[in-house]
Amino acid sequence: MPEEQQPISLNRVGEVRPTDIHEEMRRSYLDYAMSVIIGRALPDVRDGLKPVHRRVLYAMQELGLTAGRPHKKAARVVGEVLGKYHPHGDTAVYDTIVRLVQDFSMRYPLIDGQGNFGSVDGDAPAAMRYTEVRLAKIAQEMLRDIDKETVNLAPNFDDTLQEPTLLPAALPNLLVNGSSGIAVGMATNIPPHNLGETVDALLLQLEDPNVTLDRLMTVLPGPDFPTGAYIYGRSGIRDAYLTGRGLVRMRAKAFVEKGRGGRESIIVSALPYQVNKAKLIERIAELIRDRKIEGISDLRDESDREGMRIVIELKKDQLASPILNQLYKHTAMQSTFGVIMLALVDNQPKVLALKETLQHFIDHRKTIVIRRTRFDLKKAEERAHILEGYRIALDHLDAVIALIRRSRSVDDARAGLMDQFGMSRIQAQAILDLRLQRLTQLERQKIQDEYSETIAAIERYRAILASEALVCQIIKDELAALRETYGDLRRTQILEETAEIELEDMLADEEMVIPITHSGYIKRSNLNVYRSQRRGGKGMTGMATKEEDYVEHLFVATTHSYLLFFTNQGKVHWLKVHELPQLGHAAKGKPLINFLQLGAEETLTTVIPIRQFEVDRYLLMATKRGIVKKTELNAYDNPRAGGIIALTLDEGDELIAVRMTKGDDEILLGTKGGMAIRFKEDEVRPVGRGARGVKGISLEANDEVVGAEVVSQGAAVLTVTERGYGKRTDPEEYRLQSRGGKGIINIRITDRNGPGVGMMLVRPGDQIIMISQEGRITRLRVDEISLIGRATQGVRLQGLTPSDRVAAVTRLVSDEDGEEEAAAPESPPEPGGGADPLDEA
What we know:
841 residues, alpha+beta, Topoisomerase II, domain 5, Topoisomerase, domain 3, four-stranded antiparallel sheet, 24% strand, globular, disordered N terminus, disordered C terminus
């Protein structure tokens, strides 16, 4: 080998030594690897940042680009970072800024940007000369107290400036925003989490350093991706939190929507984290073209500023469930996030479990609080020292003034103050710098007050430094304030793992009208089918019935609601709304016995739609003979095939009404004969499922209860009779009585208006649906119904033929309010709401 090609080693200037090429390559590569690991690719466990992120945030702070200040060109920030701290190319710096802006990449973006910063379709951001940036408000939590010697500073690349080696980071950034990076021989991939949940986990760890992983996962159940969607299964999350490595399966958020002609469409409203929407649509189109997925008639992207909406329209009679399963199998609609919780701990890469990650952040915050307190103590002691000099001077004011006046120079005056009054050089200089206005009585008192406050602050700082418990309490308070200021709701829902997609997961949570006939036919129809009409209208056909049949029940619920079917024999059955057949408004429906195992003499009287069985709610039941009973709601959370006992009935009695209550409401019962009674619910003590109950109202011969409601403020009592008459009455006209009395007149019953059919509470803006025995439906606003006294006959609400009678009536919330109260998507109907079905004998 020629001499000039032999490997050499330069040990010092002027000395050249031959060396083995293998040794030189090994040493150089290890130096390069450590440079990449520590200086470029991996985040620090304490602030969750890589050097380039840290330098960008610090440079923007130094430029004054904080929240509330005007945006500046991104190119200006890039130049500042390159010139002062990070000489690695403008592309690397600008790419970092872009990612810190993107709300689909960062769970809590640290930079607030104006302009085009890319999209989930993979579009490139605009050039840095077109975009503008400033720090987001939450980024200031990363830099808070950096001017109080809380972190170490190191020379920059050319040794002309100082830069922080770490940020104080009050925000647990490593977990809430995650991190990803490829180093040499290792990689990190930490998912983002919800801030509120992360703070709760930190607080648990602070309370008990030995807290179990299972306990932590009750408040931090898993990652929370900025794009929402679903996490499918929990085993991968637990593995990641336990060992630092795990596979988290993600699924797109999709639901089924009915279109024209009954065709179904799969609507994708959220994608897994880091999935490119444009490439996904291309992949689906490719599968359709290659006939690997059949049954799709159209594919389009209807996403806009309101949110993501990918429409996958299916062919007629094609079921959505198998198509969606194929999409999950063959496309990025189901993706895997490989968790590798690798971060730098004392400048060494380490794979961390969840508890270790939380503890490192807590230790970091302890260090920051202690260093900040030491800085504040030092400043307070320096100020107290000067204030003590002020006090000495004020106590000997004439002598101090005389000394200064006879001094030849500032140095003489300073020396005289130090010798005559025992002041330090700093105190003497402060006296010489004192403005004459500070010698007034008011200013003298301010100096005394400031001295007292400073001494109290010094004592507080010393107490903090002497007590780890106080340090921990400060950390808790700051974390709680962080959660209060920046916390938000979880975006990513965690689903339990199942073999296939459940139909309910795909169904839109839509409002449905559910009519049930006297002979037991049931169906569900979309609420939009029924148009609002004026008072007294003939209505539209709501359900086809046989000549001898008529609609007996009508109520509103959502497709995801549970239905509790209470029968006249005091039993309760359980069903979900989406399990019912969805048919047109004029269709007859399907026999209820196809869905419920009802006895030969068992008929339906009441249906309660709910979303979950809450522990602090009750069901209050009323029977035809005036008996009432109260039982906790969760006693009915698991009905068996054939139903379970809801209450024990006397011979000849029937269950006619069930209402949800809070335990301290007021109850109103109305009867067929036009009587009503109002009493406190606490007069009815809670009893078990099989109990009988107590007397609610004393009835005259041939009278019976037709309605039971929970009184609520701002509502009026609506009473409807068989001949289509009704009225609204102020509930204040129904005085509070003791349970078991005969009550007072609710409506005057005559041959003209007929016996009472129902009684309910309504509010201004509400709407009601009335349905007759011949299947005619009228929907009208309660504002059109007269508000009159109790002992009146009412006004006509529905035009009926001579042989027709009102069969059922139910209340709807006005369109402006959004959704019907009976169909509330997150909770059962509020006590006092009239969204439950009308119950009549």
